[in-house]
Design goal:
By secondary structure, this protein is an alpha/beta fold. It folds into two domains: 190 residues, 2-enoyl-CoA Hydratase, Chain A, domain 1 (Alpha-Beta Complex); 47 residues. The strands form two sheets. It has a six-stranded mixed β-sheet, with helices on both faces. A four-stranded mixed β-sheet has the order 4-6-8-9. Helix 3 packs parallel to helix 4, helix 5 packs across helix 6 and helix 9 runs antiparallel to helix 10. The structure holds 4-(N,N-dimethylamino)cinnamoyl-COA (DAK). 4-(N,N-dimethylamino)cinnamoyl-COA binds next to helix 2, helix 3 and strand 6.
Length: 254
């Protein structure tokens, strides 16, 4: 159902239900939560999430499982998905969704909860819940407007239309298109930040996450506090000293 493997500094979490296009059963969502907890305890510097098989990153919530549930079961299901995906916000390392094929509904919501998204040439994505008489339940109505703005988010959620990778790139929904091997492209992106200190990476993520929820004055106050915290780390002392001494810094996550 799920594979979590380590490759040097980077862990790769692969949704592995290709017979159902890696659809998110509640068991799979729980397993993602457990895997994120496990990866959080590893000595890694980035986590990549991708899908097994040729066709799909993840085709969304398991539609068959959504049928015939009570209102309260459904609410608990939405809260479970939101809680698990929110773990990505606070994971100690940045995350990258390597979108290898279909990323629909909950699948795109999972990708949007990652820090970055890299799309392969076969990536197709959207929030098609409206076609099922539903609306997104795992964070899509909140994360999509933060990534692409309200007007585009409303268009995508109300029409349920499918985007190919170039359009997703143009609107900022994905960060990069992979020209060759997708996993290599995701690892190359990871390689651009894995040399930096985890405390500074985490403080920067935290500050940016708050930019979209706080009024400007409060956001600036938060930035002053978090940047001061970063300044107090040993990594900052090392980074400043390395510049002055004209050498490469050696960050130790301290
Ligand atoms: N769930 C379960 N099975 C799925 C699935 C899904 N989302 N998507 C595909 N499959 C299964 C198919 O049923 C098929 O299985 P068999 O029938 O062979 O047993 C197998 O995967 C291959 O699929 P297809 O034969 O359909 O493959 P195609 O290449 O022809 O089409 C497709 C690929 C991705 C275009 C098509 O499968 C498709 O449209 N899939 C559904 C996409 C979708 O609508 N996703 C769900 C979005 S809704 C909430 C919780 C969550 C949500 C809302 C509320 N609460 C708890 C309140 C969010 C819901 C969503 O994510």
């Amino acid at each position: 159902m799920l594979d979590l493997v380590r490759d040097g500094d980077v862990a790769v979490l692969t949704l592995n239900r290709p017979e159902a296009l890696n659809a998110l059963s509640f068991d799979l969502i729980r397993a993602i939560g457990t895997a994120l907890d496990e990866a959080g305890g590893w000595d890694i510097r980035a986590l990549i999430i991708t899908g097994a098989g040729e066709k799909a990153f993840c085709a969304g919530a398991d539609i068959k499982e959504l049928m015939g549930r009570s209102l309260m079961e459904e609410k608990a299901g939405a809260e479970l998905g939101q809680r698990v995906f929110a773990k990505l916000d606070t994971l100690k390392v940045p995350t990258i969704a390597a979108i290898n094929g279909y990323a629909f509904g909950g699948g795109l919501e999972l990708a949007m909860a990652c820090t970055f998204r890299v799309a392969g040439p076969k990536a197709k994505m959207g929030l098609p819940e409206i076609k099922l008489g539903l609306i997104p339940g795992y964070g899509g109505t909140q994360r999509l407007p933060r990534l692409v703005g309200e007007a585009r988010a409303l268009e995508l959620i109300l029409t349920g239309r499918t985007l190919a990778a170039p359009e997703a790139l143009a609107m900022g929904l994905v960060n990069r298109l992979a020209e060759g091997d997708l996993l290599e492209a995701a690892k190359a992106l990871a390689g651009e930040f894995t040399g930096y200190g985890l405390p500074a990476l985490a403080l920067a993520r935290s500050a940016v996450q708050r930019a979209l929820t706080l009024p400007l004055a409060e956001g600036l106050r938060t930035e002053a506090e978090l940047s001061t915290l970063a300044y107090r780390t040993q990594d900052a002392a090392e980074g400043l000293a390395a510049f002055v001494e004209k050498r490469k810094p050696h960050f130790r996550d301290l």
